[in-house]
Amino acid sequence: MCVYLSHLTPSLTPIVPQQSEAIVIYTGWERHALVGSDIRLSCSFFSWRWTSDDVTFSWSYRADGARDSISVFHYTGGSPYVDNKGPFRDRLEFVGNPGRRDGSILLKNLDYGDNGTFTCDAKNPPDIVGRASSVRLLVFEKVPIQAGVITGAIIGAVLGLLVLVVVIYYLMRFLVARRVFNLSVSKHGKKGKGKEGSQQRQVPVLSIGDPSKLKAAASEKKKQESRKDKK
């Protein structure tokens, strides 16, 4: 009986189909555009598989305040299909490259009514499991300054102010050091001149003596010479 079951075991092994792996889809987070301009909405994906010939891209749109989404674009079998009855008829163009995993679309002549959320979904068989990615479109008469630009400007201004403070600090130190050096040089110069003057003043002066004493000495000398002559 055991031998019989052992012979049956190989025939009972199930055939496991090729498993699919997760696919990751990427779009932007939020896009701003002006009324009447064109904008490209990018969509790409990551998959461990080679790009399949059966790769598909699908775009849907949900207007601000609406509950349901509508399909506006689909790419399958190597051909793009644009919705010719929706709000983007004659204004949507496929500009992607499926061979490079790019399913981007171009929206033309934007209007305020185009504000809403665009969702891209992609499949790369057998990788078909993945979460769609969404990007929000905001159409303005003038594109507002984004918070990142304001933050960058503030950081740049603060850094510039810090650099200016550091430069002023070192400049002041240099000027103070130069002032101290000039004062010390001038003091040493005055001391040298004072010493030279004192030395000149201390030069001994030969004493001429009292004139009366000189006359007395001269007369005494003459007397001694006259005495010598008499002798």
From TrEMBL:
<keyword id="KW-0472">Membrane</keyword>
<keyword id="KW-0812">Transmembrane</keyword>
<dbReference type="InterPro" id="IPR003599">
    <property type="entry name" value="Ig_sub"/>
</dbReference>
<feature type="domain" description="Ig-like">
    <location>
        <begin position="10"/>
        <end position="138"/>
    </location>
</feature>
<dbReference type="InterPro" id="IPR007110">
    <property type="entry name" value="Ig-like_dom"/>
</dbReference>
<dbReference type="Pfam" id="PF07686">
    <property type="entry name" value="V-set"/>
</dbReference>
<protein>
    <submittedName>
        <fullName>Myelin protein zero</fullName>
    </submittedName>
</protein>
<dbReference type="GO" id="GO:0005886">
    <property type="term" value="C:plasma membrane"/>
</dbReference>
<comment type="similarity">
    <text>Belongs to the myelin P0 protein family.</text>
</comment>
<dbReference type="InterPro" id="IPR013783">
    <property type="entry name" value="Ig-like_fold"/>
</dbReference>
<keyword id="KW-0325">Glycoprotein</keyword>
<feature type="region of interest" description="Disordered">
    <location>
        <begin position="187"/>
        <end position="231"/>
    </location>
</feature>
<keyword id="KW-0393">Immunoglobulin domain</keyword>
<dbReference type="InterPro" id="IPR000920">
    <property type="entry name" value="Myelin_P0-rel"/>
</dbReference>
<dbReference type="InterPro" id="IPR036179">
    <property type="entry name" value="Ig-like_dom_sf"/>
</dbReference>
<feature type="transmembrane region" description="Helical">
    <location>
        <begin position="147"/>
        <end position="171"/>
    </location>
</feature>
<keyword id="KW-0732">Signal</keyword>
<keyword id="KW-1015">Disulfide bond</keyword>
<feature type="compositionally biased region" description="Basic and acidic residues">
    <location>
        <begin position="218"/>
        <end position="231"/>
    </location>
</feature>
<dbReference type="InterPro" id="IPR013106">
    <property type="entry name" value="Ig_V-set"/>
</dbReference>
<keyword id="KW-1133">Transmembrane helix</keyword>
<dbReference type="GO" id="GO:0042552">
    <property type="term" value="P:myelination"/>
</dbReference>
